[in-house]
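Quarterly update from the structural biology core.
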Amino acid sequence: MTKTYALLLRGINVGGHRKVPMAELRSVLEGLGHRDVKTYLQSGNAVFTTAADAPDTTDEAVREAVEAAIEEHFGFTVDCLVRDHAYLAAVAADCPYPAEELEGKQLHAFYLSERVDEKRFAGIDRESFLPEAFALGDRVLYLYAPAGLGTSKLGEALSRPALFKGVTVTARNWNTVRKLVEMTEHED
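Predicted structure, tokenized:
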């Protein structure tokens, strides 16, 4: 039995730092025995199918193996999240904002390594950021930023490192969210 995953890398290929060429990333994943490896954009998105004889195909085991292989190959640590199609589809379906009515740049999913609760955000005065807004889901934070993330004051407030201490976070715009759902749709 195989499983199709999306791999979300955090903080690569930004400003010329921590370069991870997608062709090399595909080779690293293939070297771990994964098949049907595809990448999407240069910002660290890959989709692959696990090897049928892999000893452990849990999200966590796959993530640990990929992080170790990336560090060995590139010489630096990259935090990763590994998510299957069911999770990615649920994130898209459970979005509390009208995703179909919005441009992809107006809506973002901040994928989280674990669940977080509302207490983390007690210091953010949500009213002062309107019409921008955010909501929590299953290991995801949805950000509605009508003018896009680049000028989002709420996005800036949510980017404070202390807010997500101990949690790996990586954001994708809604176009990428949709594309990853589509790319992981095939399950053996």
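The chain has five helices and eight strands.
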